[in-house]
Amino acid sequence: MGKIARNEEKTLYLSAIPGALTLGLVYLFDNMVFVALGYACLIACVLMVYGYLIRTGKKLDSILLFLVIGTCLWNLFELAKDPSGLAIRTFAVEIVAYLFLLGMVAVGYESVIVRSFRKWLLALCLLLSPFVLAIVVAGGGDAHIRMFESVFSMTIYKTLLAVFCVLLLECERRFVLCASFVVLFILIGDRASAICCAAGLLAYWGYGFLIRRRLVCWGVFCSIIFFSIAVPLVYVSLYGTVLGYEINQFSRDYFGSNFFSGRNIIWDQVFSAISENPVLGNGLNSRVSVGVINGTDGVGLSFHNTYLTILFQGGIVGFALFVGILARLWSLVFSDGKESKVKRVAFCSLIMLLVLGCFEVTMIQNTVNVALMLWLFVAMGNTASEASVLMRDKQGAL
Fold first, then answer.
1. Dmax of the chain from CA atoms?
2. Residues 318, 352: contact at Cβ < 8 Å?
3. 185 SS3 class
4. How confident is the model at residue 202 (pLDDT cuts 50, 70, 90)?
């Protein structure tokens, strides 16, 4: 009876984590009560993760723990430069994100979490479907994706990336699944998420190749980090050139939107600010003024790039710690050299997050709940072979 009671307690803890994580999305609504409730759900989610770890005696990954502590201490140093309300919020949100990631890596793969998360995500799909349909019927694209922005942040649609991941665990027709999500995201005007889905499927297929070629595997990781900075630099330099004009015209003709969406103006100022204090950074409350972009005051706008945000706020030191965390996650996904569907989906989620970081700051700051959903799948990569996954599934069914 004691063992049964412990299993029931474990199941209750694990199944509640996805629920709190999904309910945390209410902080994306334009209502202060909902915002507070959403943050409370996210904090409760982290507390449940560590409550489970204490009860089961599972250990945190020592390398990841060292990097997370180092990152938090460095962010504390950056916060001391200008401890404003916005900077404190940024600091608190990052701590929640890193603690959740650290704890979930220790939890690893648990079938109870996957089953519960699938139910919550499918319920979320049903709730979002009328809004998505309305956007598509209205014509989609940049002009209509914001039509409900007075109610909630349009980034809530990016939670469909987590739906893609959970379906990828079960679906056999993965190309059809990916194509469906790519088309859906293009129709509603979210090209970044469409690119993430395509990149995620390529990662799923390429996992078997990379796991047998460690040098190539780490070459891919280094290339992603390099291009995360190089591509924005090239993007900025293209503005005002003949090639840039041709690319922009192509984007207008075939996608109905400009290639230069205003990010080039923001990133140009960001690169200038980074060069002024490249090592120590500019603080968590740092902002650049870029005038007016698409009718919006350019003071305090999101940088729309996680890597540039980290480099701008934390300097090379903060950026190195962040890359160290990503590298550790990358190594855990390939840790034992054995393949499993769970590890493939974990790698898919990690690639999607890395790609998404080139367009948004959702990995650790803005609308972080979207990232936490994908971090959950990444954390599942800290598990062993397919045999051990099947064994855990059988134990969870007892």
1. 74
2. no
3. helix
4. very high
